[in-house]
Amino acid sequence: MQNAYLLHQLTTQERILVNSEVEKRKKSTVAAYLLWWFTGIIGGHRYYMGKTGSAVAMTLITVLTFGMGIIVTGIWWIVDAVSIPRWIQEDQDRIEVQAATEILNSRPAAPITPRVHDENRDPMEF
Q1: How far is it, in rounded angstroms, from Cα 99 to Cα 6?
Q2: pLDDT in tens, 9-68
Q3: How many alpha carbons lie under 13 Å from residue 61 in its C-beta half-sphere?
Q4: CB 14 within 8 A of CB 96
Q5: Among 39, 38, 42, residue whose Cα is nearest residue 60
C-alpha cells in the first residue's frame, strides 16, 4: 500500500528510475534457490536473503547437534522452499520504497508564496 502511494507521487521518468534501481539491486530468485538446494540445511539461502538471525540458528542447530538437528532444519528447509518467492517480493518492495523515498526527498521544496491581504475576501475562507 505504501508503495502505491509513493509511486503515485512520482513522474513517469522517476518511476522508470525506481524500476531500474529495483532491477539493479534485487535479489536473484535463481541464486536463492541454488543456495537453498545446496546449503539450505545450514541456512545459506537465509544468509543471502538477509535473514541472518534464523540463518545462524539453522547453522548452529545442524552443527552443534552433530547433524541430528537435520530433522528440524530439514522441515525448516522444506518450508523455506515456498517462502523464497515471498522474500524476493518483500525485498523488491523494500528497494522500491527506498528508491521512491530518496527521489521524493531529493526534490527541491516548493516555494512558499505569501498571501496578499484582500479586504474584499471573507477572512474565514482559505
Answers
A1: 10
A2: 999 999 999 999 999 999 999 999 999 999 999 999 999 999 999 999 999 999 999 888
A3: 19
A4: no
A5: 42
Nearest to 51 by CA among 63, 43, 39, 59: 43
Amino acid identity of residue 120, one-letter, is N
Are the C-beta atoms of residues 46 and 81 closer than 8 Å to each other?
no
Q: Which three cell numbers stand for residue 97?
A: 520504497
How far is CA 33 from each of CA 45, 50, 51, 75, 101, rounded to the nearest angstrom?
7, 14, 15, 16, 30
Report yes or no: 31 and 39 within 8 Å, Cβ to Cβ: no
C-alpha grid cell for residue 109? 521544496
Interacting residues of 110 by C-beta distance below 8 A, sequence separation 6+: none
Read off the pTM: 0.80
Cα→Cα distances 46→35, 65, 123, Å? 9, 20, 61
